[in-house]
Amino acid sequence: MKAMSCHAGRHLQDPASASDFKALGVSVGLVVLNTLVDACCRAGDMKRAAALLQDMVHAKFDLQPDLISYSTLIKGYCVQGDLDDALELFGAMRRKGIKPDAIVFNSLLDGCARKEMPMLCEQVIEDMVAAGVQPSNYSASILIKLYGRISDLDAAFKVLDEMPQKFGFRPNTAVYTTLMSSCTWNGRMDLAMGLRERMLQDGQTADEKTFLTLLRGATRFGQCEHISTLLWEVAEQSMRQRKPLVETEVVQNALHTLMKRRAWNQQGGEECLQHLRCAGFNVVRPQVATPAKGNSQRRLVSRKC
């Protein structure tokens, strides 16, 4: 069978429906239909995705939708911001006796978080537990991101402090990094760096996203001591992995901030620069502004190492 997508059969007025497949003389199974629903959702064509599901519900394909069918469409609705449609479909799925799994609940949780509805998020967690599905690191990350977005850092930290212990999972690097991002978003670089220490003590290793989050935050707020600490760690970890850990542009911007804030010498900028180069980063010494002789204006002078 030829590969099909949401836009397959362009000669048909309304492709990817039961009548279209019958007109083509093609017999399809549930896996193919679920793939088509997913393709339509990814393309943002929720109308066609919903039509495919309805064709299955009304037995036009001689088969019934399963958990994956409903889960895919629910996630599509949530991504598109159609929370009401997602919740309505969730109810229809349960009325058919299909038991939701973690993917469905986390999709709904993410949909509620996108709408910045913390009370509804808490209700989803309660329903999740009542259905015998345990919240996970992914669930915690969604909640933390929500609370960071609405500037409720106390609630965000409460998720980290209580949810893992309550539901029996260990917070991973992604959870810590999400909370760090929430802290930097709300101007609390001090809390973000404190989380870095807590994460390391908890046996979790900083990854690329962790360093990007912290470096961008420290650069944004001009916190040179943090910049220096992070750059050295980035260089060390890059050497161990034998490849640059983060984007060179982020590292170069951080170095520029050290120079701009007149902290280059104090924070060991020259040594840090050489260490980064040894780690594989193609970075240059930032330009410094110096007064030109006989001219009141300032010009940038590039100094090579």
From TrEMBL:
The keyword Magnesium does not apply. The keyword Membrane does not apply. Pfam families: PPR, PPR_1, PPR_2. The gene is EMB2745. Keywords: Repeat. It comes from the Eukaryota. This is EMB2745 protein. InterPro entries: PPR_rpt, TPR-like_helical_dom_sf. Gene3D superfamilies: Tetratricopeptide repeat domain. It comes from Symbiodinium pilosum (Dinoflagellate). PPR repeats lie at residues 29-63, 66-100, 101-135, 172-206.
